[in-house]
Amino acid sequence: MEKQVLDYVTEKTHALTDAFSCSKEAKAAAEKWLNSIGTDAEAEETKKYIAELEADIMPLDQLIAFAGSEQGKAYFGADQAAGIVAHAQELKAAGAKYCDCPACQAVEAILEKKEEMLK
């Protein structure tokens, strides 16, 4: 991986692990990837990291469906769930594909470099 790409992904990875909305699985994968940089395991850990990020990023349609469900209302509370649905619908109408929480923003930025990461 080119140094510029590595530096960018490393910066976004730290933003991800610092995000309140980062899942424990994504945080573990991020830390494992960071620890693999410069080792023989880096290429394999990069593939695993990308796979975890692709599984964790929240598409807006899924967020809207969950927050609008009874389970989502129970998880977030009815008022907050309604606000999340409204916000997600605004994002979708504006052309966004993913949730705009700090973790999803970091993941989206990292995944934009996916092909360069795999070189």
Low-confidence stretches: none
What amount of the residues lies in strands? under 5%
The overall average pLDDT, rounded, is 97
Helix fraction? Answer: over 70%
Query: What is the multimeric organization of the chains shown?
Result: single chain
Helix and strand succession?
Answer: HHHHHHHH
Number of strands: 0
Largest sheet: none
Could you tell me the radius of gyration in angstroms?
Answer: 16 Å
What count of helical segments does DSSP give?
8
Query: Which structural class do you get from the secondary structure elements?
Result: mainly alpha
Shape estimate:
elongated
Explain how this protein is built.
The structure is a single chain. The chain is mainly alpha-helical. The protein has two domains: 1-57 and 100-119; 59-97, no CATH class. It has eight helices and no strands. It has helices at residues 3-18, 24-36, 42-56, 60-67, 70-76, 78-93, 102-111, 114-117. The longest helix has 16 residues, at 3-18. The radius of gyration is 16 Å and the shape is elongated.
What are the defining features of this structure?
2 domains, 119 residues, 8 helices, elongated, mainly alpha
What's this, in brief?
The protein has 119 residues and is mainly alpha-helical. The protein is 75% helix and 0% strand.
